[in-house]
From TrEMBL, chains A, B:
<keyword id="KW-0813">Transport</keyword>
<feature type="domain" description="CBS">
    <location>
        <begin position="144"/>
        <end position="206"/>
    </location>
</feature>
<keyword id="KW-0472">Membrane</keyword>
<keyword id="KW-0460">Magnesium</keyword>
<dbReference type="Pfam" id="PF01769">
    <property type="entry name" value="MgtE"/>
</dbReference>
<keyword id="KW-0129">CBS domain</keyword>
<protein>
    <recommendedName>
        <fullName>Magnesium transporter MgtE</fullName>
    </recommendedName>
</protein>
<feature type="domain" description="CBS">
    <location>
        <begin position="208"/>
        <end position="264"/>
    </location>
</feature>
<dbReference type="GO" id="GO:0046872">
    <property type="term" value="F:metal ion binding"/>
</dbReference>
<dbReference type="InterPro" id="IPR006668">
    <property type="entry name" value="Mg_transptr_MgtE_intracell_dom"/>
</dbReference>
<keyword id="KW-1003">Cell membrane</keyword>
<dbReference type="InterPro" id="IPR036739">
    <property type="entry name" value="SLC41_membr_dom_sf"/>
</dbReference>
<feature type="transmembrane region" description="Helical">
    <location>
        <begin position="388"/>
        <end position="410"/>
    </location>
</feature>
<comment type="function">
    <text>Acts as a magnesium transporter.</text>
</comment>
<keyword id="KW-1133">Transmembrane helix</keyword>
<feature type="transmembrane region" description="Helical">
    <location>
        <begin position="289"/>
        <end position="306"/>
    </location>
</feature>
<dbReference type="Pfam" id="PF03448">
    <property type="entry name" value="MgtE_N"/>
</dbReference>
Amino acid sequence: MAEEQNQQLEVAIQHLSDLLHSGQDETFKDSFEALHEYEMGQAYAGLPDHLRSVAWRLLDIELLAMAFDNLDSNDDETIALLLEMPPQKAVQVLRSMYADNEVDLLQQLSSRQLATYLSLMPKKEAEGVRNLIDYEEQTAGSLMSTEYMAVEEELLVGDVMQLVKRHANEAESISYVYVLDNQARLVGVISLRDLLTHPDKLRVSEITNPRVISVKAGDDQEDVAQIVADYNFVSIPVTDDDEHLLGVITVDDILDVIGEEAVEDYSGLAAVNVSQVDDSFWQSAIKRIPWLVALLILGMSTATLINHFDGLVQKASILAVFISLITGTAGNAGTQALALAVRRIAIGNTKTPVKTFLSEMLTGVVVGVVTGLAVFLIVTFWKHNMELGLAVGLAMMIAIMVANLAGYLIPVAMDRLGLDPAVASGPFITTLSDLTSVLIYFSVAQLFISHFIGK
Amino acid sequence: MAEEQNQQLEVAIQHLSDLLHSGQDETFKDSFEALHEYEMGQAYAGLPDHLRSVAWRLLDIELLAMAFDNLDSNDDETIALLLEMPPQKAVQVLRSMYADNEVDLLQQLSSRQLATYLSLMPKKEAEGVRNLIDYEEQTAGSLMSTEYMAVEEELLVGDVMQLVKRHANEAESISYVYVLDNQARLVGVISLRDLLTHPDKLRVSEITNPRVISVKAGDDQEDVAQIVADYNFVSIPVTDDDEHLLGVITVDDILDVIGEEAVEDYSGLAAVNVSQVDDSFWQSAIKRIPWLVALLILGMSTATLINHFDGLVQKASILAVFISLITGTAGNAGTQALALAVRRIAIGNTKTPVKTFLSEMLTGVVVGVVTGLAVFLIVTFWKHNMELGLAVGLAMMIAIMVANLAGYLIPVAMDRLGLDPAVASGPFITTLSDLTSVLIYFSVAQLFISHFIGK
């Protein structure tokens, strides 16, 4: 199905190119206007460069704004498309876009370009845009749009419906009308559903829900996404600390947030940016190599450590047999603890930090004891050597407990320090755990060696 | 902010409990009704058992249905709440719920319970429900709701507005009205926005968009989610293969899908179910151990292989030093390739399979050569032994290429076989790659050993 849509889009782009190429400007405009808004964006971006420079001359500002509103406003390819136009034209398009997308694009400009663009806007509008630009990334403020509908409580249902009808084409969502007091503070919300099902003569205060759920402009976008998903909202209002309404966030932006966050966490766990699946092999290699080489250098410390125990290996080469088993299993246990810790941070923990810590500690102990016991049994029976089994099993047990604890503590500590815990990638944890596992393994083996050697 | 909401909810539940406890039934009903729908669900589920059995006797069916509509309909705790009521009451609640949630809950019943419940519904309704139950999980059909608005094209805008007003409280989304031909096939869509901004006397055919984007009931839910996210829809219609309208999927269900899929992929990469962050330490350990032990047994094959090369290690104990470096680095490369492949499958590939394969192969070659070269240099200078450096570097290069290819091919093959590629977990790939890496390492070392031994 998704592929079918892609194919249709390819055909549409080809058709539009042909029309432009053969000079059928009016038919091009009509065909473009008949597209879905998302397709307008894709089609505009998909036109060959020389035809796109014709397209922006032909198309109405409103249509261009729709196209740009439906491209990824955080993508540097989108801003590149905008920069193809002269600044005057680009600013016209930006001003017709939804404020959240406009600001996303402006944020990617150099400060010099930004100054130029803002100088081409009416002063008051430029100020408003500057305020929005100042919101930190990944906060509610950076997601919100300022095209919303708000009224005071004294109106009648019919009045508000008139207002909705007038603003229906500008507002990003028409599902809710917000109610403000005389100091512009958010005090309630009216749903379009209720407006439609109540008589025109009724005072809106009768259908206003005073328990309006809102977020603060500085709130983390993940928290906002969680509330919208829980409450099944299609939009949520954003206020400042004094409850003044600043804007609304619509569910389409929430979909993007959830997608982004998931991709970030996933990328962290794999030490590769999975959002760039379309890279050429060369770009792809260039991006993977630094991680691998950094981890390789960290891994060299493990090699150095094993080298330090060379005397031990020379005495009992059997020790080499279990190196990868212990590092591998401890690494797996560490990855499990890491993934759960990152996830717990992402969705908000319901237990206290102390309880979570104790619970994770105990889990590590149980997992370590059971797995250690399994290894003890396997090695004892395989090699008919209980002392060796004991050494490997004990080392495995301690290595798992340590890896488990590290997998839990590192992301939690990073979160406390205000860093993104997803950066503590799975491979980083496993490479680090290799080092501690080897240290534990050879230390334990050293204690036991007189017992199992020569057997 | 999310925490603030949770605290408010706790307070609300306590308040409701107190009211029930002290017999203030009417105040309880009013307070419950004043909650947000999501909070109704949470509050109902959060009441102590003995008070909940009073609550369902007091509350209107409509309010109970709202509460259940806002609980996770795929959770077995939700169905348990429903089973607390006598079947007659439970069926009344189910019938007042949105069809998608109703069906999710019914699917969790035993076939005997299901038969009882269906026998308590009007025959035609029971048939409709049975049809919905038959849609496979994770398809569009399993997500859709049958409460939508549809009209024929001959009507006027005013007529359709009347219809919207009448059905506003039943339909799950009122943003779109669908247009059907005389054989109930989907031929267009009208947005509420357009209805509001056009005169009542206009024929709806004037504002009907004939290019309606729909999905088929059998389509994969991930594909549906992608379309909704791309097009910024708040709902999307579902049809059968002959374009007959069957239902609609609303954006709140899409939010859940995106969350679920991300959690599944993430869980796969870590070999632990990260959706269960609230497990007790005991449950948590019980769930992690089977994976670890299974991987441990797979890891034993690597140990056996190293054991097989014991003679080699005895001759050159230096070989033990680089085992974890090679297995670790190859494992990391394999995990990167795996994560990208799983992600590419999830979001739909834009290149042909052959191109992707070639691109991934070439990436593996570049990554392998660069990393192998780095290792060659490090080992040569560290050990002042170029032959050893050559052996380790060459082994590293081949091991990375193989791990990279396996990380790419395994999920792709699983997807072709109709299995979920996320099950090919990161730890599984790394453990498997340990085996091939060790085999490659010792085989290469064997070729070179006469050159570097005794140096």
